[in-house]
From TrEMBL:
This is Methylmalonyl-CoA epimerase. GO terms for molecular function: methylmalonyl-CoA epimerase activity. Residues 61-162 form the DUF4174 domain. It comes from the Bacteria.
């Protein structure tokens, strides 16, 4: 099978036309390979959705240092009304959070003792907004709307520097 350059807008018919001298079986193999590449790219794009909350047990704060601002939502159970309210507030307005490189992390299992829970030691419900350098920007004991969160982020010295240097 000879290599065929792949673009995401390529149709199956176009893939077959790129290899006119190939046998029908080779053309079918090439087309199936293109479909597999497109499916992989689609699933990878979905897997890195920045607005999708991540479980604290699956990540560490260090992996976001200088890359993103973790917003961590802690609760003792996913049924906590404050947790439910906070997650709804975050989901309602994702764009301002994306503009500020926010990644949402949730931890609703105190017995699991995730590294993030151990480091930040929340009690009950807690909203913690981190800075890009890994330090705590602010903590809140009750749900906050996106407007208040982004105002707090915009007051971080690192965010001010980003704005001055023409970053996001």
């Amino acid at each position: 099978m000879r290599p065929i350059p792949v673009t995401f807008g390529m149709t199956l018919a176009a893939a077959v036309m790129l290899a006119p001298s190939a046998t029908l079986a080779q053309q079918a193999d090439d087309a199936l390979a293109l479909v597999a590449v497109a499916e992989t790219a689609t699933s990878e794009a979905e897997a890195v959705d920045p607005t999708a909350p991540r479980a604290a047990a699956d990540v560490t704060l260090e992996e976001f240092q200088w890359i993103a601002r973790p917003v961590i939502v802690f609760a003792d159970t996913p049924a906590d009304p404050r947790f439910v309210e906070q997650m709804q507030l975050l989901a309602d307005r994702p764009d301002p959070l994306l503009e500020r490189d926010v990644v949402i992390i949730v931890d609703t299992d105190p017995s699991a003792s995730s590294a993030i829970r151990t480091a930040l030691r929340p009690r009950g419900f807690s909203l913690v907004v981190m800075q890009k350098d890994g330090s705590v920007g602010f903590r809140r004991p009750s749900p906050r709307d996106v407007r208040e969160i982004v105002r707090g982020i915009d007051n971080f010295s690192f965010r001010q520097e980003e704005l001055r240097s023409g970053g996001q």
